[in-house]
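User: What would this chain look like folded?
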Amino acid sequence: MTKHYTKAEHLGDVSIPGAHSLSFRDPSTLYVSTVIGQKTPSQGGVVECSMDVHTKPFFTSNCSYYSVATGPEGAVAVRNAICDKNDLEIYSQKGHKVVEWQLPAGKHKGMVIDAECNLYVCDASSHCIRVYDLTGELKRVIKNKEIRKPQYIALTLTGLVVTCMGDEPSLVSLSLDGEVLWSYDEFDWVAGVAVDGNNDIYVCDVVEKKVIMLANEGEVSFDLVDGSMLQNHQPFSVAVCGNKLAVQLLECDVVKLFTLTS
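Assistant: Here's the prediction, encoded as structure tokens.
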């Protein structure tokens, strides 16, 4: 019988200037994308973080990187350069750029890579999810009337889950063909989402300052990480791998690390 995680024990905090998006390479290694701001005036890129809170650059650049995803072929970072120009770059596990291409104009948000190296990218401007291979070839576009301003995305055992910020902020579960399986809309502002090996879903409720866990297709939900565990900051990005959970806090350059227990 599967034992679902029910508690999050604080492991430590990591200060990463400009931290914006999270993705685990494996349970011991976390990638953090960074953007240029007042505390990072000249460099963005991706930082590699271990669970003992040591960090080192994976790569650096003079551009901001708003999303990062990991997969069998390495790491992926999407760069939002000027206005709505988006360049998507593929990196090897050693931090070398392999290929890059320009996405269509618009606001592209979260992304995820599956085991077959398909890259799913949320296009909030066009209300769709674009699916590419890792050479930049567009394979298909997933559209559904329930997908409104998709923000962040994760893979489940049956398809995808997407956070949307349309008229009613929601979490939408989709098949890989774009069919809506179920949805959950108890949010005022929803951001990052992640899925663990038990197919349980972790989602950032920004306004309520908590990370909610959803199980059994949204029928079971509870607050896994509350505001007191986040020092009353707003969670924005979340990642999970094995029994490790990472939460990036909005506007404070801190990533909190947790160990999950049953």
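The chain is about 0% helix and 55% strand. If you want, I can go into more detail on any region.
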